[in-house]
Amino acid sequence: MLIKRPSDIRASEITDESVYWNRRDFIGTTAGVALAATMPLVNGFVRSEQDEKLTPYSDVTRYNNFYEFGTDKSDPARRSGKFQPRPWTIRVDGECNKPGEIGLEDFMGGHTLEERVYRLRCVEAWSMVVPWIGIPMADVLNRFEPNGNARFVRFETVVRPDEMPGQKTRVVDWPYVEGLRMDEANNPLAIFGVGLYGEVLPNQNGAPLRIVIPWKYGFKSIKSIVRISFVRQMPLNTWKALQPSEYGFYANVNPEVDHPRWSQASERRIDGSFFPKRIDTMMFNGYAEQVGSLYAGMDLRRWF
Fold it and tell me: What is the pTM of this model?
């Protein structure tokens, strides 16, 4: 594993340089000016595997699970054009000393735009390598001073069926809900994602604010968040509520525990090719060194 400081990363190492700088043109627009006032500095690290190629931008933004826009992986890109990610308000409540409702800019902490990229693998039955722009989750959550009763953090997505046509169906019980243990949320790899490939987060990828938890399966990474609650009890996340025999609370990537309907020992890497190759899945998606201690002594077949 190669770990580089953000200041060591050149644009050409992230993506094709001409494509990268074309993406940066957004900074000169009105939206880009607003972003420059709100995008955070990231005090984390870049995890970069020499043999892992970034997933093409076109795949990252056109092949998505985001049921608020539909169940087909092409639906989010096709059906998210009406969604308005700004202005945006996040409600923070529960077991904390500083609850309240705040705008996205305040949530971000007023930092200036600086390219510090988390290059992370994300896995479902398929996987991608994405250069996320994000804020360490712990840096944000600690500003609300969770108290000693806060054992978990619960996330809730926005409900706007007029803008999110998938919410007009009952495929899930809206709003979409997810959660983490507090020690998971405080791990340096847990981030609030606010951009990718050098630009603001597209609607279909969870604009304007989502979480990215790279050692867990993709359904944990809830998108378009409007509420964060510090709670005492383990939240009932959406997929566990729907199919508890198939989807647990933890959702840690584990090649040794199969889904009831398919093997999880390998994954299909989305890489821009017509026939993506299958590769072996790694425990905790390859991040065992950073997160394995969080689950010491746990039966990971029971707590899946």
Answer: 0.83
Compute CA 175 distance to the chain's CA centroid, rounded to the nearest angstrom. 17
Q: Tell me, letter by letter, the H, E, C secondary structure of the chain.
A: CEEECHHHCCHHHHCCHHHHHHHHHHHHCHHHHHHHCCCCCCCCCEEECCCCCCCCHHHHHHCCCCHHHCCCCCHHHHHCCCCCCCCCEEEEEECECCCEEEEHHHHHCCCCCCCCEEEEEEECCEEEEEEEEEEEHHHHHHHHCECCCCCEEEEEECCCCCCCHHHHCCCCCCCCEEEEEHHHHCCCCCEEEEEECCEECCHHHCCCCEEECCCEEHHHCCCCEEEEEEECCCCCCHHHHHCCCCCCCCCECCCCCCECCECCCEEEECCCCCCCCEEECCHHHHCHHHHHHHHCCCCCCCCC
pLDDT tens-place string over residues 250-302: 999 999 999 999 999 999 999 888 888 999 999 999 999 999 999 999 999 99
Superfamily of 2-295 according to CATH: Oxidoreductase, molybdopterin-binding domain (3.90.420.10)
Per-residue pLDDT tens digits for 153-172 = 999 999 999 999 999 999 99
Domain spans of the chain, in order of start: 2-295
Query: 26-55: per-residue pLDDT in tens?
Result: 322 222 222 222 222 222 223 344 457 889
Of 121-135, 149-163, 169-183, which gets the smallest average pLDDT? 121-135
